[in-house]
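Give me structure tokens for this 226-residue protein.
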Amino acid sequence: LFFKLPSDSFKYLGWCDIEEHDVRGNQLRCPRVREAGPSEQELFFRGEEHTLKKRKQVTDTEKWQKKLQENWENCAELNLSFQDLGDLYQMENFKRILQRLIRVEKLWLMDNSLTDLSAIRLPRCRELNANKNYFTSFRQLPKIPQIQHLSLAENNIMTLSGISGFRHTPLESLILKRNPCEFQERYRQLVFSSLPNLKMLDGIPKLPEDCSPPDKRGFFRVCTIL
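Here you go.
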């Protein structure tokens, strides 16, 4: 490039805490919730405690004020993509936030190395994008009883086992592109027979041939492409 990018002037700056501001968590569409580095205990076991910075003692009052300012309970739309939140060092803070998203309706979790969120419940979530993660089963997804649009492209979901758990949800659109289950024989018929309310699969509307009853004997057979 013959010119500097807009971010060039910030390339030597580090992350810092701005202690006094009135911005609430639910006002941020793409907040950075990833915490930097391993815990103090982990650093101690690794013999790297010398890298610890002296941390300010936080009182219970300050913790409560921080919780109120985060205000995740009133967040309706949230994008937490591309933060590698599935990492061991990030999961505790990440799940703490997810458990507080009781009113979130649209949630993006793309490319976070996630493997299992089955203990999480998102009661009002209507749209979830969890593309490019490490889910291997529908049973590893969070509880999303109001889901309408679900995108799981580029995960590692092997079979359609567990997909019937969405049968009694208002799910209308499902994306499973570039998952191994996409190559099952009679893949579309199996999905639509399990989800009768589904209107669109992988960006293609429900077609007449998708309504033919699947061959149960071929449920676990995989179509091999050479």
